[in-house]
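User: Hey, my collaborator sent me this sequence without any context and asked if I could get a structure. I don't really work with proteins. Can you help?
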Amino acid sequence: MIRLTFITALLTFGLTPVTRARVKVAPHYAALANGYWSAAVQRPDGHGIAFTFEVKDSAGRQILYIRNAGEHLLVDDIEVNGDSVLIRLPFFESQFRAVLIREGMLRGTWYKRLTDHYQLMPFTATYGGSRFPSDKTPIADISGRWAAWFGDSSRERPELLVGEFRQQGKHLTGTFLEQTGDYRFLEGVVDGDSMRLSCFDGSHAYLFTAHIDNDGRISGGQYYAGPTYHQPWMAVRDANAKLPDEFTLTKWKKDRSHIQFSFRDLDGKTVSFSDPRFHDKIVLIQLMGSWCPNCMDETRFLSKFYDEYHDKGLEIVALAYERSTDFARSRVSVRSFRQRFDVKYPMLITGVSVSDSLRAEKTLPQLDAIVGFPTTIFVNRHGDIEKIHTGFNGPGTGEHYEEQKKEFYKTVDAMLAE
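Assistant: No problem. I've predicted the 3D structure and written it out in C-alpha cell form, which is a compact way to encode the shape of the chain:
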C-alpha cells in the first residue's frame, strides 16, 4: 500500500510552478553528462516510444532540449540530488522522476497529471546512442504526400489523414495531418522495408511503425499513443490527398452570432467581451489549453501576430479549457504557458474542463460545438462571428504551416479593411 505521505508529497510536487532552473548536485556523485541521450517511455505491451534529448550548460546551470525533428523543446527546471533526478517539463503538468543507476544510465517514471490522477509510464535514458538503431539499406524513398487510413476492419469507415514524409538516406521526418491539426514533429528511420517514427513533447507520446511495400504503398501500420492507445493504419502515395477546409468544421448559430463572455484572467480579474479594449476592434478568440501541444504551436504564431497587428486594430484573447476546474491549478499551468511564449494578449480561464461535453453550451453558446483545440474565432468590429478556424497545422507540416499563416494574414487584412 502506498503511504498517504507519499501521495501528498506527489500532489504537492505536481503543483509546484516552474520559476527558474534549479540544479543541486551532491559533490560525491556525477551530474547528468552533457551531450546527447537516447530515451524512451515504455508501454505495458512492450513498445517503447523513443526520443532524444541534449543536456547542456547554460549560465552556470544545466538545461536540456527534448529533440523531435526540427523542434528543440527547452527544459530548464532540473534537480540532481545524489543519484536522484527530477526533470520538470515547462508545461503540460508533466515531469520525469528518475535515478542514475550508473553513469550514463537513467531509469525512472514519467508522470503526466490528468484531471484527477497521474498517468505513469516507465522511463529509461542512456547517454549516447540513437533514436532508432538501423542496419539495413532502405528499399525505397517515401518522401512526399500520402493518403493514410487509420482504423481497423471493424470500423465502417476508416479515418483519412494526410502523411507528409521527408527522407534523407535512412533518416525520416514528417507528420500526419488530420482535420483538427497535425501530429507535430515526428522523427525516425527507414530500415530496409520498415519505417518507424516517434514523438515525445511532454504531452504526446507517439510511435508509428509500418512495412514499406514499395515507393507507393505502406501497409501493416501500427500507431501507438501513450500507455494503451493503439490503432492500425496504411497509406498510398497521393500527391493530391487533402482534408476538409479548416474553416468549415466548426459551426455557429447564425441568429446568435454576437459574441458575449466573461471569465477571469490570470490575476483573477473579470474580463468581458463588452470591455472597451474590444470595442470597434477585430478580435481573434483563441480556444486553447495549456495541455495542448498544437495550441503551443498556434500561440507561438499568434503572439508574434499580435505584436505585428495590435496597433492596426487587432485584439486577441485566449480562453483556456484546462483539465481541472480548479482556478488555482489552472492558473499555474496557463501562466507558465504565457511566459514561455511571451503572450501579451489576455489569457482567461473558463473554469470549464476540456473533457466537459457541454463546454460550448457553458462558455460560448453561439457555437454548435467546440470540435477541437485549438479553435480560432474571427470576430468583426460589430462583435459578430465572421469565420471559425478549427485546429492548427504547426511548423512540422512545412508548406501547410506557411499556407495557413497566409490565410490568417489574408483574413485579418480583409476584416481590417472593411
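In plain terms: Residues 1-29 have pLDDT under 50 and may be disordered. You can pass these C-alpha cells on to your collaborator as they are.
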